[in-house]
Structure formats: C-alpha cells, structure tokens
Amino acid sequence: MAPSAETEYGDNVEVPDNKSRVTVVGSGNWGSVAAKLIASNTLKLSSFHDEVRMWVFEEVLPSGEKLSEVINQTNENVKYLPGIKLGRNVVAVPDLEHAVRDANMLVFVTPHQFMEGICSRLVGKIREDAEAISLIKGMEVKMEGPCMISTLITEQLGINCCVLMGANIANEIAVEKFSEATVGYRENKEIAEKWVRLFSTAYFMVSACQDVEGVELCGTLKNVVAIAAGFVDGLEMGNNTKARQLFLDTTMLSTFNFCLHLTVYMITFFESCGVADLITTCLGGRNRKCADAFARNGGKRSFDELESEMLQGQKLQGVSTAKEVYEVLRHRGWLELFPLFTTVHEICIGRLPPTAIVEYSQS
Ligand SMILES: NC(=O)c1ccc[n+]([C@@H]2O[C@H](COP(=O)([O-])OP(=O)(O)OC[C@H]3O[C@@H](n4cnc5c(N)ncnc54)[C@H](O)[C@@H]3O)[C@@H](O)[C@H]2O)c1
After folding, report:
1. N or C: which terminus of the chain has fewer CB atoms within 10 Å of its end residue's CB?
2. Annotated binding-site residue? 299
C-alpha cells in the first residue's frame, strides 16, 4: 500500500515517495510526549514528512466534546498531557486504519493489554515496507510462553520491530527536562539509527543497542520492582531497607532476563533502559505511587480502585506484569527461584499482606 495520487484521467497511480511518514499508535501520557518529540524532529529532518498522525482511542470528555477533536483544535491532549502543545504538525486521528495508512514508520505506545486487539485490527492494513518501534512496557503470556510486545508486533504484522525504553517519566520529558533512552534493535543498525534521529532532541538523548530482548525486558520488569519499592515506602521502612530491596530486585531482574533469553547482554543494564530506568521508576513513577497507597491501606483497597482514583484514566502496568511474570514462573517451575516476583504478585492479589515484602527481603 504505497501512497497514491490521482492522474488527470482519474486513475490512482503509485508515486515514489522517498520521505518517511510517521504514525504514533497511542495517545496516552507517553504517547503524547512521543508525538511531541517526533513532531519537533520531522519539521527539521528533510527525510521525513512534517505531518505526524497520532491514533486516538476516542473518548468523550466531561464537556461532551470528543478528545480527538479537542486535540486538533487546541493542539493539546487535554486529558493525558494537559498544558503541553504537541506541535502543529501532530494530527489526532480516531480511525485506526486511517491513522496508519501511508505510514512506513509506526510507533506503538499504548498500555500493553490493548496491543493484541490493535494488532489484529491492523493485519493487512499497513504498508509492506513498514518498520515499527515499541515504547510499550509489558508482555503477553500465552500457553507456549511469554511473548514480548515487539515479538507480538513482528509475528502478527510481519514487520521488523525495534524498542525504545529508558528512564523516562513522560511528564518530565514533556517539560523538556533532560533524559536518556535506548533503542534496542535486532540486526538492522541503519533502521535503529533512523529511530534514534527521529526521537533525539537536545533534552532527550537516544542511543542504540543491539539487544531487543534485554532492553525490552528491563523496561517491562522494572514496573514490578517499582511495585515492591512502593510497598516498602508505604510501610515506611526507610531508605536503608529500600536500598537493600532495590539491590535484591535488580539482581533478580537481571537473573530472570538471562534465564528467559540467554542472548541478553549484561552491558544493557548499564544503558538508560536498565538501572537508570529502575531507579527513576522506583522514585517517581505511577506504579510506586499506587503501591505506596496500597501498603498504607494495609492492602484493603484494591489496585483497580486505587488506579481509577489516583491515575484518572492512565493505566498501571506493574500489577498486570507481575501476574504475567508469575504465570511464566509457574509454567517453568521457577516460582521459588524468583521470590520477589512471586511475593509481589501474591501481595497484589491479597494472598499475602504488604508486610510480606519485608519478610522476603530479610530472608
Ligand atoms: N507515562 C509514562 O511516563 C511512560 C513512560 C515510559 C513508558 N510508558 C509506557 O508507555 C505505554 C503507554 O502508556 P501511556 O502513559 O502513554 O498511556 P496512559 O496510561 O497515560 O493512557 C492510557 C491510554 O490507553 C488508552 N485506552 C484506554 N482504553 C483503551 C482501549 N480499549 N484500547 C486502546 N487504547 C485504550 C487511553 O485512551 C489512553 O490513551 C505503556 O506501556 C507504559 O508502560 C509510559
């Protein structure tokens, strides 16, 4: 499906188009910031079309207006990133097929639980030469084992998929506070460098690393670690306990990565997607915040309740990832090898009290 133009006889013919067209699939907090970063670069880089389409999961705002229409009128995502101009060249599109049509660079950035449905709607609807990148943290667990989101995209859509992860709290990057990120790629370094150019700004420094699994797993698992950190904070255990906790968690995270993908490299942990992301998320992210509230309430208020009260439509990833990781461990007979992940899941579902996180650390 290459771009086409109408001839003077009314026929549609394919036209050569050397410039890349970018669509961002997702328009939450990080999705909107990604669109802003990309849009500032497509205006400057001659190898890209200026326009950046952003697929919006349509919602009706309390005012009765449609979110996509308000974004296009105000150039702001008033629900998920209020107060930040996205760039005049960002166009909100509520129709998924229309949003991806013509694009050869697809940026996926929705909560991971929606990706299977989104991919199945996109089969046969995207350009054959499309390249993808996933900014999504999370995994799908199937009978045959865990499936990272980049793999899901590649398998369902038949396209190559890189990943971008890092110590990236969206609201901070939105106001242009300095941050770094890592693009994980499989083989094609040229494509990775194209993604690096598309995302890099003076305040967002991006580098490439040939380790898709390592980069993606770091980004995914750190949300479970952040839940553990939130429990320790909510129990007011202090910084020494939290440091010990984080040390244990980091060790377990890296071991799990190796066990799952023997190809994962140690050096990846020292990229922005590794230890730096872990620290940021355990200090300031939404998973830590909700887990803190969960522990303060002695586990009596569910994560679903806290999510809808504290996040206003944004999604928690750590709780569902903990469940998915638990399923992987159970399936492989590894539950006892990874007590942190097991304990976090059992606390989240109310099988253990929040204090179990400290007992686990002490043992
Ligand atoms: N926010 C951050 O700071 C941050 C940073 C790095 C990575 N991430 C990752 O980026 C991904 C997207 O997070 P976000 O912060 O942009 O989203 P978000 O949690 O802010 O927003 C939720 C989004 O999901 C959409 N949605 C709701 N129901 C839907 C449905 N049924 N189908 C499809 N979409 C639906 C909403 O419209 C909204 O756009 C996640 O994997 C997250 O872990 C987020």
Report:
1. C
2. no
15 CA from centroid of ligand 1 (Å): 35
Q: How far is the CA of 135 from the centre of ligand 1 (A)?
A: 10
26 known ligand binder? yes
What confidence tier does 8 reach under pLDDT thresholds 50, 70, 90? low
Considering only CA atoms, which of 122, 129, 80, 78 is closest in space to residue 103?
Answer: 129
CATH number of the domain at 215-356, out of 3.60.21.10, 3.40.50.1220, 1.20.1630.10, 1.10.1040.10?
Answer: 1.10.1040.10
Cα separation of 285 and 290, whole Å? 9
Query: What confidence score (pLDDT) does residue 69 get?
Result: 98
Percent of all residues in the chain with a pLDDT value above 90, rounded to a whole number: 69
> For residue 181, what are its two tokens?
């990120």
Active site residue 85: no
Whole-number pLDDT of residue 266: 76
210-243 per-position pLDDT tens digit: 999 889 988 888 899 999 999 999 999 998 888 8
Taking the model in full, what pTM does it have?
Answer: 0.88
pLDDT in tens, 97-148: 999 999 999 999 999 999 999 999 999 999 999 999 999 998 877 666 678 9
20-210: CATH class: alpha beta
- Ligand 1 atom nearest 112 alpha carbon: 41
Q: How far is the CA of 133 from the centre of ligand 1 (A)?
A: 15
pLDDT higher for 142 or 250?
A: 250
**Domains of the chain by residue range:** 20-210, 215-356
Q: Is 313 annotated as a binding residue?
A: no
Q: Which atom of ligand 1 is nearest to the CA of 27?
A: 39
